[in-house]
Amino acid sequence: MAQVLKRLVTGIAGLDALLKGGLVAGASYIIQGPPGAGKTILANQLACGHVRQGGRVLVATLLSESHERLFQYLATLEFFDPALVGDQIQFVSAFDTLEQEGLDAVVKLLRQEIARQQASLLIVDGVLNARVRAETSLDTKKFVSELQGHAAFAGCTLLLLTSARLDEGSPEHTMVDGVIELGEQLIGSRAVRHIQLRKTRGSGALSGRHECLIDEAGMHVYPRLEALYSHPSQPGCASLNRVTTGIDTLDEMLGGGLARSSTSLLMGPSGVGKTSLGLAFLSASSAEAPGLHFGFYETPDRLRLKATSLGYDFADLERQGALQLCWQPTTEGLLDQVGARLLEQVDRLGSKRVFIDSLGAYSRLAADPARLNAFFRALTGELRARDVSVMLTWEMRDIFGSEITAPAPDLSSIVDNLMLMRFVELDSQLQRMLSILKVRDSHHDPALHALHFSPQGISLRNAFEGACGVLSGTPVPQGSG
Amino acid sequence: MNTILIVDDEYLIADILGFALEDEGFLVEKASNGRKALEALKEKRVELVITDYMMPVLNGEELVLAIREELALCDLPVILMSGAQASQGRPELFAAVFDKPFDMDKMIAKVRELLDT
After folding, report:
1. Nearest chain B CA: its distance from A183 CA (Å)
2. Considering only residues 82 to 101 of chain A, which have any Cβ-Cβ distance to chain B shorter than 8 Å?
3. What pLDDT does A14 receive?
4. Chain A: residue nearest B54 by CA?
5. What is the pTM of this model?
6. N or C, which terminus of chain A has less Cβ within 10 Å?
7. What CATH superfamily is the domain A7-223?
């Protein structure tokens, strides 16, 4: 039977997910990245997290910066507790020893300090200075090797922080068990931090680059959703039951409603009524099967007003615990952060119907648009696994016209049901049209229907008979021309 | 001329404090941890010690206890430069306690008071 490695949980959920459970206890890691990438914050966050789990930490700096200066910055971060310093976390400077006596003396000093402090985690900041002090690459290798040896002998996990971008052939890389790289990338005028596990010896890990951010709580890591959920986390629901769209006539067109746990996409231009259909969908929420509005554009107050104008009492549903309106007030977030937030909300509320308004807003968060298809596939797959029926919107650019833009290629393979909404100009009247383009594994009414919104709700009726070219928005009577 | 021993593993702090005290006419010796400080005290006459708390090998509290017990220097005044991040050590062991970052003028005034200069 394969042996399970003892893990040291980092306390950063996303990082633990990347590491498949945390750092390997007793192993050695390099944390590398340019100045400002967040190495020191990450290391100190790990230190505080380790102490809270009963560990003891020795932080040794090979830098000339004062510890007091560091504490001033750390004091602005919520994870940092000054009361831990001097007791469970010891900071020592080995800069002078490095300068005066060299690498061997630093190793000796740290060996003594590990024992004296009974440290179970050793963080060495400023390894670049050790490299500079070394006369040959063999000296660097020996330094890392000896530190590793002493730390491992004492059952101590070792983190080496360096601002050098060490390549895979560097002496440090070849010696350590793992390499965690931090960096930052400019996407337009937006800076996006990222983290990558470049080496994880003898341990599974989520490979590739993942987004992260630093706020007042410290560092957050958001694994790429498609990497985290390459396989659905739960078996999902195999029921053939139907759920209502909240609109009787639409249910009839769909052959009795939407398949439970299915994903439906509403496509249409701005103002055509996608959000209203979503509100109708959420109006069917109940305490047993709660609904969640996950939107980027409209505030909860505006949504309640809009719902009221359609005859739905959202405030009452919220009071019953049947509905939650979750507004994402900014599009400055990260794609995987917002994806994770949605899944957290669903888990917390036990949501069974979710309306996401819209995929376009999600897409704008993507630093790498090539990921979108895989991202949406993972997100909808996870929602399906949680037995959630999902309605999504996608805003088409053109109000009229035959061109239809999709949020991601092959989107129709991700969604189960596809509905197209358009403005139609007919007989000097502007009407709204809905047609069902696709319903997976079910028959449906293919006729084009006119949508009508009123304080009594939303209704659909057969329309546009005797006209062709309706989907382009400018139909003409059949047989004309 | 009075000699002051500054004990701190962070050489920058030891240097800055050292320069300020030298400007005031004191002789300054430095040590990067408590053990090295004890060795220096065995070799040189020192009128006052200013020590950091958190240091490798021997911390500030261990140093002051060793000064009293090992070296039997019961009257040698010792000032603690405590990290502002935590109330470290037992303040009663020290002639004065300064939280880092401290006001240099106040430190010099305290040194003068303790040395009666």
Report:
1. 29
2. 82-87, 90-97, 99-100
3. 97
4. A86
5. 0.85
6. N
7. P-loop containing nucleotide triphosphate hydrolases (3.40.50.300)
Q: Best mutation site among A51, A88, A93 for testing chain B: the one with the most B CBs within 10 Å?
A: A93
Question: What residue ranges do the domains of chain A occupy?
Answer: 7-223, 242-477
CATH topology match: A7-223 vs A242-477: yes
Q: Which residue of chain B has the CA closest to A112?
A: B57
Chain A partners within 8 Å of B13 (Cβ): 66, 68
B56 contacts A109? CB cut-off 8 A: yes
Q: Give the tokens for residue A103.
A: 């690498």
| N residues, chain B | 117
Q: With bands split at pLDDT 50, 70 and 90, how would you rate the model's confidence at A131? A: confident
Residues sharing a CB contact under 8 Å with residue A209, sequence separation 6 or more, in sequence order: A194, A195, A196, A224
Identity at B10, one-letter amino acid code:
E
Identify all chain B residues contacting A100, using CB atoms and an 8 Å cutoff.
32
B87: pLDDT strictly greater than 60: no
Residues of B in contact with A83 (CB under 8 A): 86
Q: Which residue has the tokens 């996303």?
A: A14
Break chain B into its structural domains and give their ranges.
Answer: 1-43+60-73
Nearest Cα neighbor of A104 from A159, A145, A65, A66 is: A145
**CATH for B1-43+60-73, among 2.40.50.320, 3.60.10.10, 3.40.50.2300, 1.20.120.520?**
3.40.50.2300
Tokens matching residue A457: 């709700």
CB contact under 8 A, B83 and A86: yes
pLDDT in tens, A182-225: 999 998 888 999 999 988 886 778 989 999 999 999 999 999 99
Residues of A in contact with B85 (CB under 8 A): 71, 75, 82, 85-86
Task: List the single range of A130-144, A328-342, A463-477, B92-106 with lowest mean pLDDT.
Answer: A463-477
CATH class in words for A242-477: alpha beta
**Whether A41 contacts A49, CB under 8 Å:** no
The CA distances from residue A58 to A52, A111, A218, A290, in Å, are 14, 11, 20, 48
Q: Does A64 touch chain B (CB under 8 A)?
A: yes
The predicted model gives B47-69 an average pLDDT of 94
Alpha carbon of B24: minimum distance to chain A alpha carbons (Å): 24
